[in-house]
Amino acid sequence: MNMSTTIDRSHIEALVRKAIAEAGGLASSSGAQPGKPAVAPLGWVDGKPNLRVSISARHCHLTDEHVEILFGPGSVLEPDKDLYQDGFYAAKQTVMVVGPRRRMLPNVRVLGPTRPFSQLELAFTDSISLGIDAPVRHSGKIDGTPGCVLVGPAGSVQLDQGVIRAARHVHMNDHDAAYYGVANGDMMQLVIKSHDCSVTFDDVLVRADKAAKLEVHIDTDEGNACHLDAASEVILQKMPGACACGH
Cofactor(s) for this protein (predicted)? Predict the structure, then answer.
């Protein structure tokens, strides 16, 4: 026997409203939670910042002019390996660094892209080896710093200033800064827990940028001191005593 089922208009509308409500419930359950961004920020994992601590070995930054002097007319930096921060890379080119006592460091890596001024970043033991009294400075703060000679396959450059021991710092984006309650220029504390050689680093400068991923940079001396490669835990936090505004 053939049967036909008639569903009235009001029942259809009720089914539609129910489907829309359920779809809305699914959307809201997978959406942003209060205090969290709707879309995962750059570098975040499982709804929170993914902290990376990297050892920044000795390296130099060059101007376009110095690249051509050191490597030949028309030369440009050739990317060899991308760094964690998007848009930055270790170049194929290296230079020799000559200190005031004719002491040398061969094969110092050049990082790109080029900059408006050339700068050499060393660890303390590197500066001792070269015989250069390099001060601890934040990148770009090179006024009054010592210089050196850079030697490439096509020529040499005398830097009157620009040799520094790079101060420890943390790159982060605006979402990371909000998560930690800090702002660009604030100081944070990094705790490295390693067997028998745990170290707490104060004065970690916040360098906030919209395109940055959360990454702390320390030099080779600092990395060796805390045995970073064998660390069991790393903690980044506001400096003790910092107010709620992050200053």
Answer: Zn(2+)
